[in-house]
Every structure is written in C-alpha cells, then in structure tokens.
Write a structure and sequence with these properties.
The protein has five helices and five strands, in the order βααβαβαββα. It is of the alpha/beta class and about 140 residues long. The chain has one domain: Rossmann fold. Helix 2 (about 30-40) packs parallel to helix 5 and helix 3 packs parallel to helix 4.
Length: about 140
C-alpha cells in the first residue's frame, strides 16, 4: 500500500479561523478527512503533520524519504527556508508544493519560493482542492 505524507507549516493549524477571506472557512481536520477518503479510494494511506517549527518540518521530510510522495505547504517558510529546501533535495521522494491562496496575487514577498526549484510542481490558489489535486498527481 502506498503511503503519502501531508506536511503543513506555520499557521495552517488556524485554518477556518485565520483570514477566512483568503484561506476559506474549512478546517485542517476537514482537509485531513477529505484526503484520507481520497487515499482510501485509491488503496493508499496518508500521514498528516502540521508544525509551526521549521526543524520539525525538516525531520518529517527526512522521515518521509521512503514514502510514495509528499504534499507540502510550507506556509511562510516558502519564501526563505533554505533548510527546508535542502531537506527536500536530500530525499528521493517526490514533493508537490501546495498553497491555498494564489501567492502570486498577494504581497510581493510571497511571489518567490525557494522551495519550488526542488519540487515536482507547485499548486497555488485553488483552496483545499489543491491538496486533492496534489494527491491525485501521485496515483
């Protein structure tokens, strides 16, 4: 059975409460339920993690080195965490970067991802549906 990791970075534990005009009203729990169902339908499992701490995210990326794929929303770390970028580059597992909002239509500091050069792709601006598309891309 294939196993996928979904790793969410800072403030994503606040989904449903944090700026619903940008991030929507659905919660992280709702997202996890939807992805678990999709994985089950495709005879796969998903391991979920969320942290506001860079080192913890790096540890989970290392842990996922033998997984079938990683879906990563690094949050604000997207724009400056060379440590997360290097962790991704250090594992053979394919990573899809996901952002709920369209970061390219927001503040200019959000336009650059130091993560995307080492990922298989980037999905932005499609809300939580972006996670589903990322997971489907692995099947």
């Amino acid at each position: 059975m294939k196993t996928f990791y979904v790793i969410n970075g800072p403030n994503l534990n606040r989904l449903g409460k944090r700026e619903p005009g940008i991030y929507g009203s659905e919660t992280l729990e709702t997202l996890e339920q939807r992805l678990s169902q999709l994985a089950s339908e495709n005879e796969a499992t998903v391991i979920f993690h969320q942290s506001n701490h860079e080192g913890q995210i790096i540890d989970w990326i290392h842990e996922a080195e033998n997984a079938s794929g990683i879906i990563l929303n690094p949050g604000a770390f997207t724009h400056y965490s060379y440590a997360i970028r290097d962790a991704i580059a250090s594992v053979p597992t394919q990573v899809v970067e996901v952002h709920i909002s369209n970061v390219h239509k927001r503040e200019s500091f959000r336009h650059t991802s130091v993560i995307s050069p080492v990922t298989e792709g980037q999905i932005v601006g499609l809300g939580l549906k972006g996670y589903e598309l990322a997971l489907q891309s692995f099947f």
